[in-house]
Amino acid sequence: MSKVLFRCVGFFFFTCVADSVLFASEVSIDSWDIGSVITGSGIGSDADGTGAVENPFHRVDHAELPSPGGATSTADAEYFASWDSEGFFSFLVNGQHTAAGNPQMLVTRSSGTIYITPSLNSILSIDILYDYSLGSGMREARVKGAVADSEGLVYNAEVIRNTLSSPSAGQITVDSPPIPLNAGTQYALVYLLRLMSFSGSASSLSQGEGFIRLELVPIPEPHTLALLALAGPLLLRKSHRSC
């Protein structure tokens, strides 16, 4: 009876300690600036976005800019973000953009910077997919996912497709390797989905649609791993013998 009681108490102790360690490892989103912007030389600009941090977070942005006698450029984005007391962080932005031609320059984009401080050593992944179709003239589609700390860039992926050297339609993808982030260090996570026009008819639209996903997963601390190792035999025995 005493051995059974010891196993039950040990299992309860392990569960409480592990939970308390995980609870103390909440990731901190220090600030962010996210939104969608359109700027056209000679025709003005429009923007929609936020700097207010919320958890969980869901928002829809819309910006539009008519071209005189031509089409209307648009920038739309929908965001989903959440993080928890175990140190996990997830951020997803779905973007859809149209960009009219402009004799000088027109930019339509969804972009942002997230300042994040993990409490545990963690692994970040960045996934990007962007389908694009460029109008006539000099046009460009660009995506970016980058990570920086106070010392400079930790990771940078930037892909450009333009009508000078690339097919006018296609897909851009980025699948980052695991990016290690150190506990207690603040990082800037930067993302971009963008269309640009340097010429072309104002009635001819480029189109882009896709997403960027950022995911942070904590690496268990050594003493947490030790607790798991010690509890392994206990858990195996418990599966054969109930308290």
What does this structure look like?
- Helix content is 17%, strand content 56%.
- The chain has 243 residues and is of the alpha+beta class.
- A hairpin with a 2-residue loop joins strand 8 and strand 9 (152-162).
- Strands 3, 4, 5, 7, 10, 11 and 13 form a seven-stranded antiparallel β-sheet that branches. A six-stranded antiparallel β-sheet has the order 2-1-6-12-8-9, with no helix packed on it.
- It folds into two domains: 1-25 and 221-243; 27-220, no CATH class.
- The longest helix has 22 residues, at 2-23.
- The protein starts with a helix and ends with a helix.
- It is elongated and about 60 Å long.
- It is built from two helices and 13 strands, in the order αβββββββββββββα.
Q: Strand-residue fraction?
A: over 45%
Main sheet record: 7 strands, antiparallel
Number of strands: 13
Mean pLDDT: 86
> What proportion of the residues is helical, as a percent range?
10-25%
**What is the tally of helical segments?**
2
What string, H for helix and E for strand, traces the elements in order?
HEEEEEEEEEEEEEH
Parts with pLDDT < 50 across at least 5 consecutive residues = 1-24, 223-232, 234-243
First-residue to last-residue Cα separation: 10 Å
- Given helix and strand content, the structural type is alpha+beta
What is the C-alpha radius of gyration, as a whole number of Å? 24 Å
Total individual domains:
2
Which term fits the overall shape? elongated
